[in-house]
Amino acid sequence: MGHQLLLCSSIPHKKYAQTVSTLEALTGLQKPQDIATYTIITKPHNVFKPKVEAGKVNQIEQYYMKCTTTWDDKASASLDMASPVITGQSEVKVERLFTGEKKKQWTFHIADIPNAGKNAVSAQNFYESTMVHYHTRGTKPITSSEKKPESQQENADEIGASDSIAQEGKADNDDDLMVVDDPAAESQPTVEKESPVSAANAAELKDSFLQFLEDLGYDVINQYWVKGIRFFHGDIVIEIFKVFIRDDSDTSRSENDTRIPLKLLDETNTFQIKTYITYPKGTNVDTITKGSKDLTHLKGTLNNLFELEVPDRMFLDSRVSRTI
Amino acid sequence: MNKAETNGNAAAASASIPVDSLELIRNRLHQVHQSLRKLADQINYSNRNPKAKLPGYLSLHGQFQVLITQLHSLASHLELNSDILRTTNAFPLPSFPTTQQEGLVTTLLRKKPLPEVDEWIDAAIAECNLFNIPLLKDDELAEWCYAKAKQLESDFVFDGFYTEKQQLYLESEEGVAETERKKEETAAKEEREKSIVGTGEPMKPNSILKFMTKGL
């Protein structure tokens, strides 16, 4: 378990250079660290309904889980944050994550809702775990490849993907996770799991990360890419980034290009800024209070550059039952 | 002169005495007298005992200040009551024992300063002239300094962001052309900014966080 203190802000694109220079001067970091991550947001597919009994803790919640890994293909490397991403002009296309045999570190992240009350900074508990995943294509039993591609194809058709994707899906059902962001996809793994035959197959398909998530009891509901830079100021981490999502409207793509086009989540090219300090479990309160003061102090220091604010806790609420 | 008449005269005389003014002045004189005596005592004491030191400079200075204040106050009171004092004539009442107290009467009735006091006054005036402090000139100098300071200040107050040279250049033909070009550049830049930013409102950090939390 960890504890995170957080303040957020955003800056328009034109202030990027100024902000970066200022932060370089402030932190003494000549070259900020790059951030390039790919995140899948998942949701538990079995609803957990504990029997309400007197004298027992009945408030048991289910949480969304974030699975994050690095985004280290050519698109990420060539994407310069200093130049804007303009819809229709700039082209950001990511490689399919699950092509090729690669080792990936995945970080699972479940966060509690931030503390209530009027605080100078947002304080939140979270749980994290990291897994190393070796992707192997493997040879699959016919039964599974018959069963799965079918549904995958449906899925692919639904979102209007080109034929090449569908074929790709048929050939290798592992490498098209990027396509699976349609609600329809969520229902089918459950079905599969219920049948004993496919459960047996699933055991052989354990090499797929998607499969792993399904076995874990989670469905993929969305995905995003984050690209930006990171500064360190004392214990404080300052991140400046943009969030990308899959661009389904992009039709210019050629038949053979299996890469996935991306667009900005916020098309105004606004940069998001997160400043946070993370503490391991059991850090004493004094240290956390000091961290909180440090963050507030940083807020004061950067006041004329951008205004750091406490994010609304309701927006950081990752409990499944709540729908905001 | 019978006794009743004498009493009547005394009453009339006492009625016409400017008691208030005299009393105030007497108080002031008393204070000055006290201060002077104290100062004299101290100096005499140190004169008599060679071992004893004179009071410290600060204490002497303080006493001198007090004395000046007292004298100033006295002078202002004399000035204030000058009319009454000038028109008042002092004379001994018939009941005063003139013969026994002759010395005191002559002292009290004396209107002119003593010859030695006259000498002091003359000496003081002469000395003052000798000093010849050019007070007016001082004022002139002060005025000149003030004007000069103002002028220097105005010389070093800068308006705008250009030096004189740059200002001249900007007013020349080339400068005008350059300004024009820069304006165009700025406009083009703004146009570019617009295409970058797009038309929509930027998303709030909260919304982004929500997306990053729940995918919505």
From TrEMBL, chain A:
<dbReference type="GO" id="GO:0070847">
    <property type="term" value="C:core mediator complex"/>
</dbReference>
<comment type="subunit">
    <text>Component of the Mediator complex.</text>
</comment>
<keyword id="KW-0805">Transcription regulation</keyword>
<dbReference type="InterPro" id="IPR019095">
    <property type="entry name" value="Mediator_Med18"/>
</dbReference>
<keyword id="KW-0010">Activator</keyword>
<comment type="similarity">
    <text>Belongs to the Mediator complex subunit 18 family.</text>
</comment>
<dbReference type="GO" id="GO:0016592">
    <property type="term" value="C:mediator complex"/>
</dbReference>
<dbReference type="GO" id="GO:0006369">
    <property type="term" value="P:termination of RNA polymerase II transcription"/>
</dbReference>
<keyword id="KW-0804">Transcription</keyword>
<keyword id="KW-0539">Nucleus</keyword>
<comment type="function">
    <text>Component of the Mediator complex, a coactivator involved in the regulated transcription of nearly all RNA polymerase II-dependent genes. Mediator functions as a bridge to convey information from gene-specific regulatory proteins to the basal RNA polymerase II transcription machinery. Mediator is recruited to promoters by direct interactions with regulatory proteins and serves as a scaffold for the assembly of a functional preinitiation complex with RNA polymerase II and the general transcription factors.</text>
</comment>
<protein>
    <recommendedName>
        <fullName>Mediator of RNA polymerase II transcription subunit 18</fullName>
    </recommendedName>
</protein>
<dbReference type="GO" id="GO:0006357">
    <property type="term" value="P:regulation of transcription by RNA polymerase II"/>
</dbReference>
<dbReference type="Pfam" id="PF09637">
    <property type="entry name" value="Med18"/>
</dbReference>
<feature type="region of interest" description="Disordered">
    <location>
        <begin position="137"/>
        <end position="177"/>
    </location>
</feature>
<dbReference type="GO" id="GO:0003712">
    <property type="term" value="F:transcription coregulator activity"/>
</dbReference>
Automatic annotation (TrEMBL), chain B:
<keyword id="KW-0804">Transcription</keyword>
<feature type="region of interest" description="Disordered">
    <location>
        <begin position="175"/>
        <end position="206"/>
    </location>
</feature>
<comment type="subunit">
    <text>Component of the Mediator complex.</text>
</comment>
<keyword id="KW-0539">Nucleus</keyword>
<comment type="similarity">
    <text>Belongs to the Mediator complex subunit 8 family.</text>
</comment>
<keyword id="KW-0010">Activator</keyword>
<comment type="function">
    <text>Component of the Mediator complex, a coactivator involved in the regulated transcription of nearly all RNA polymerase II-dependent genes. Mediator functions as a bridge to convey information from gene-specific regulatory proteins to the basal RNA polymerase II transcription machinery. Mediator is recruited to promoters by direct interactions with regulatory proteins and serves as a scaffold for the assembly of a functional preinitiation complex with RNA polymerase II and the general transcription factors.</text>
</comment>
<dbReference type="InterPro" id="IPR019364">
    <property type="entry name" value="Mediatior_Med8_fun/met"/>
</dbReference>
<dbReference type="GO" id="GO:0070847">
    <property type="term" value="C:core mediator complex"/>
</dbReference>
<feature type="compositionally biased region" description="Basic and acidic residues">
    <location>
        <begin position="178"/>
        <end position="195"/>
    </location>
</feature>
<keyword id="KW-0805">Transcription regulation</keyword>
<dbReference type="GO" id="GO:0006357">
    <property type="term" value="P:regulation of transcription by RNA polymerase II"/>
</dbReference>
<dbReference type="GO" id="GO:0003712">
    <property type="term" value="F:transcription coregulator activity"/>
</dbReference>
<protein>
    <recommendedName>
        <fullName>Mediator of RNA polymerase II transcription subunit 8</fullName>
    </recommendedName>
</protein>
<dbReference type="GO" id="GO:0016592">
    <property type="term" value="C:mediator complex"/>
</dbReference>
<dbReference type="Pfam" id="PF10232">
    <property type="entry name" value="Med8"/>
</dbReference>
<dbReference type="GO" id="GO:0000978">
    <property type="term" value="F:RNA polymerase II cis-regulatory region sequence-specific DNA binding"/>
</dbReference>
